[in-house]
């Protein structure tokens, strides 16, 4: 399937010089277009190509769940959110197979954790879910909210409610955090037919969310991720999630590089964002995160496949005995 190359080609042909190259940041699909940002911005070391104006147009629909009021529900009312069947994928450039038949089912309101040795394919799986162009899907299916995710461009996937926090969030020089979030949030409001929030109203909206991730207000005036420590970047990712929302948040090692207080803050923030209607898929190496954000299911990935699924006891076993305790090879 030439999904990724089709994506890259389509973006280049359709948007040519007004597109820009940026990285795998979770906010890329929400980038707004205004006088500050509509200039072409090039981060030449990074792979994704997106168009600012188009990104705004498509960023405006379904980022809703986190910001929607919660409703009470029981297990029998749960809806299927994500169904991955026999997913195989290769590195686009080398055709090396990384995912070798991943199966996963996630219902609304569930928290799933993926663990696994370094290099087992966890981040690749997450990136394939959001349509990263480094990978080509060669088989299997991904259904998200009843739609074929593989038929959607990366931006459409975020429109459909996927959010990904990457292991290494990127900097966006020259763009302040608050402007970035305000414009992205307003783009969504425009699409929903709601009045935009001016700077003061937006500040009132975002202020309690800063508390959620225990971030100082100074961070709003700093350029996106510029000079942020590893922990601050992670908090900033969760702030973005809190502002924009998602029906499925994919969090790739949000615990890496966090001190114990920051871990508690980030976990508390994620827990605060959970509703019966949205789900979290988190990749982690450590039990400590799972003690803060309680997963419904834990999956262990090995050599591009999920080889074991269970409850928190899996993480405890791994912590005590390492991967040899459950290795299939
Ligand atoms: N774009 C790429 N180019 C080359 N190799 C890649 C690429 N993406 C993934 N790989 C390789 O695929 C394998 C799986 O990588 P991946 O990042 O998915 O592992 P992971 O389970 O997330 O590892 P970790 O726990 O160390 O983060 C690794 O051997 C990695 O080097």
From TrEMBL:
Alphabetic keyword roster: ATP-binding, Nucleotide-binding
Segments forming domain ABC transporter: 82-328
Superkingdom of origin: Eukaryota
GO molecular function, one term: ATP binding
Tagged with keyword ATP-binding: yes
InterPro entries attached to this UniProt entry: AAA+_ATPase (IPR003593), ABC_transporter-like_ATP-bd (IPR003439), ABC_transporter-like_CS (IPR017871), FeS-cluster_ATPase_SufC (IPR010230), P-loop_NTPase (IPR027417)
Gene Ontology terms describing biological process: iron-sulfur cluster assembly
PROSITE patterns named among the record's database cross-references: ABC_TRANSPORTER_1 (PS00211), ABC_TRANSPORTER_2 (PS50893)
Cellular compartments per GO CC: chloroplast; iron-sulfur cluster assembly complex
UniProt keyword Nucleotide-binding, yes or no: yes
NCBIfam families the UniProt entry points to: sufC (TIGR01978)
Protein name per Swiss-Prot or TrEMBL: ABC transporter domain-containing protein
Organism: Cucumis sativus (Cucumber)
């Amino acid at each position: 399937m030439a999904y990724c190359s089709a994506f890259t080609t389509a973006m280049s042909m359709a948007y040519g010089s007004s597109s820009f190259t940026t990285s795998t940041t979770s906010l890329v699909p929400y980038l707004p277009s205004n006088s500050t940002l509509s200039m072409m911005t090039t981060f030449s070391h990074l792979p994704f190509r997106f168009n600012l104006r188009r990104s705004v147009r498509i960023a405006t629909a379904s980022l809703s769940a986190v910001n929607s009021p919660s409703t009470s529900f029981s297990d029998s009312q749960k809806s299927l959110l994500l169904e991955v069947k026999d997913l195989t994928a290769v590195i686009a450039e080398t055709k090396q197979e990384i995912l070798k038949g991943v199966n996963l089912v996630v219902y609304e309101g569930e928290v799933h954790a993926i663990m696994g040795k370094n290099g087992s394919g966890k981040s690749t799986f997450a990136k394939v879910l959001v349509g990263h162009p480094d990978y080509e899907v060669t088989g299997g299916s991904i259904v998200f909210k009843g739609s074929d995710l593989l038929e959607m461009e990366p931006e459409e996937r975020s429109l459909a409610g996927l959010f990904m926090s990457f292991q290494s969030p990127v900097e966006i020089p020259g763009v302040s955090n608050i402007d970035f979030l305000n414009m992205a949030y307003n783009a969504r409001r425009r699409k929903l037919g709601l009045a935009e929030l001016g700077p003061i109203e937006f500040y009132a909206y975002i202020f309690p969310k800063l508390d959620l991730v225990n971030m100082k207000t100074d961070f709003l005036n700093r350029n996106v991720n510029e000079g942020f420590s590893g922990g601050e970047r992670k908090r900033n990712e969760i702030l973005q999630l809190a502002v924009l929302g998602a029906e499925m948040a994919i969090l790739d090692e949000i615990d890496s590089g966090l001190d114990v207080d920051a871990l508690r803050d980030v976990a508390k923030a994620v827990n605060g964002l959970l509703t019966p209607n949205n789900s979290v898929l988190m990749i982690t190496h450590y039990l400590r995160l799972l003690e803060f954000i309680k997963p419904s299911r834990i999956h262990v990935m090995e050599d591009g496949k999920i080889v074991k699924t269970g409850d928190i006891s899996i993480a405890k076993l791994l912590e005590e005995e390492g991967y040899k305790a459950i290795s299939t090879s």
